[in-house]
Amino acid sequence: MNLAKELAGLDINACLEMLKATENAALIDVRSEDEFAAGHIPGAVNIPLERIDETAARYPERMRPLFLYCRSGRRSGLAESRLREMGYINAVNIGGIIDYEGEKVYA
Question: Is the whole model's pTM more than 0.90, yes or no?
């Protein structure tokens, strides 16, 4: 499976629908802890960009699909690049929460 090709051109909302249909997928919010607490997508785990290397401890399986988002898509793009360097072949930047149309969770 080439997750990046499957999601190419889709917005964050369509990508989240794909996440629901993807076995063993994880949703990672790479914004700061304060941003995460101020509102995030249900089911997301917060791993801020500056701590993205901690993903290996939480998700050691390098084949696991990782759907990444931030505010606009820039930081999640950087996180995707770093995770690919670490061997995560199914890490994908799905964009920014600013385009998310669903309900948010507040911590």
Answer: yes
Whole-number Å distance between alpha carbons of 49 and 29: 9
> How far apart are alpha carbons 67 and 95 in whole angstroms?
9
* DSSP assignment string, 27-91: EEE-S-HHHHHT-B-TT-EE--GGGGGGHHHH---TTS-EEEEESSSHHHHHHHHHHHHTT-TTE
Report the Cα–Cα distance between both ends of the chain, in Å, rounded. 34
Q: What amino acid positions are annotated as catalytic residues? A: 70
Q: Reduce the DSSP state of residue 100 to 3 states and report it.
A: coil
SS3 assignment, position 3:
helix
Spatial CA neighbour of 94 closest among 37, 43, 50? 43
Tens of pLDDT, residues 1-20 = 677 777 777 899 999 999 99
Tokens 């993903």 appear where? 55
